[in-house]
Design a protein that fits this description.
The complex is a heterodimer. By secondary structure, chain A is mainly α. Chain A has seven helices and no strands. The radius of gyration of chain A is 20 Å and the shape is globular. Chain B is elongated and about 50 Å long. The model of chain B has no long low-confidence stretch (mean pLDDT about 90). Classes of the chains: A mainly alpha, B mainly alpha. Chains A and B meet through helix 1, helix 2, helix 3, helix 5 and helix 6 of A and helix 1, helix 2 and helix 3 of B.
Chain lengths: ~170, ~100
């Protein structure tokens, strides 16, 4: 096992272990902390895949913004945190069977497919090309602008829904 | 070099963990967290495909970025809904939120 494979195994175990603890934790706040750990593992895997920009965005948006938003929601619904009750519903066994079966179906397909063994390197200006393609009218300028409109709509909608009605 | 299939297997396992969380948890916030795990698994496989199959293009990374944007919007709107439900009904347990059940 080479060094890079050992690092991959470390991040993979971090991601999957923390992900499993996220869905199994009894206390919601612990679940959020494990979610942050799992997202950090995914960011590490992005670095291994040479997608440095996405790794940075992952840390900024997911760990920096979305996790804090979820922590706010946990705090605002504090009555639930005091007596959480059982964390799983009565169909959890069936859910485990379904999720396990899904993985058992997916794994042989992924492992058996003849993926290309060698790959070309990432061009040195990959981040510059990514930035240019987002504002290039012939590539992703329109989806980029639409995404900003959608973010604005979600922002206004969130404020309107969560506002105190008088 | 790590084979592409290893990344895809990790992504598949993470997605299945998310599926289990969505189906089995009772707290609406926990369900939202499991959805975030599923979106992350999809992003991981998108970036892995980009790196191993088309590293010279930007499409894979751009797609992952848009998934991230949608995840942020979904988290904001979903948590606002949960807070609104908690204010009106004093619970975020999805077993007790059954207004639409006949």
């Amino acid at each position: 096992m080479t060094l890079i494979q050992a690092v991959f195994a470390l991040f993979a175990i971090l991601t999957l272990g923390a992900g499993l603890l996220t869905v199994l934790s009894r206390h919601l706040f612990h679940a959020v902390l494990y979610l942050i750990l799992s997202l950090l593992g995914v960011a590490g895997l992005f670095v291994l895949l040479e997608a440095e920009f996405l790794a940075g965005v992952q840390v900024l948006i997911y760990i920096g913004a979305i996790s804090i938003l979820i922590i706010f929601a946990v705090m605002l619904t504090r009555g639930m945190a005091r007596n959480p009750g059982p964390p799983l519903n009565n169909q959890s066994l069936a859910a485990a069977v379904i999720a396990g079966l899904f993985f058992v179906l997916l794994a042989p397909v992924i492992a058996g497919f003849p993926w290309p063994q060698t790959t070309r390197g990432v061009p040195a200006d990959a981040i510059e090309a990514l930035g240019r393609s987002l504002v290039d009218p012939n590539q992703f300028a329109l989806p980029f602008e639409l995404a900003s409109v959608m973010i604005l709509a979600a922002l206004i909608g969130a404020i309107f829904i969560a506002r105190e009605k008088r | 070099m790590v084979p592409l299939s290893w990344y895809l297997l990790v992504a598949a396992a993470l997605f299945c963990i998310g599926v289990y969380g969505v189906l089995a948890r009772r707290n609406a916030i926990a369900i939202l967290m499991a959805i975030e795990l599923m979106l992350n698994a999809v992003n991981l496989s998108l970036v892995a495909f980009w790196r191993y199959l088309h590293p010279a293009t930007t499409t894979g990374q751009v797609f992952a970025l848009f998934v991230l944007v949608v995840a942020a919007a979904e988290a904001a709107a979903g948590l606002a809904l949960i807070i609104s439900i908690y204010r009106n009904r004093e619970t975020v347990d999805v077993e007790n939120i059954d207004l639409l059940k006949g």
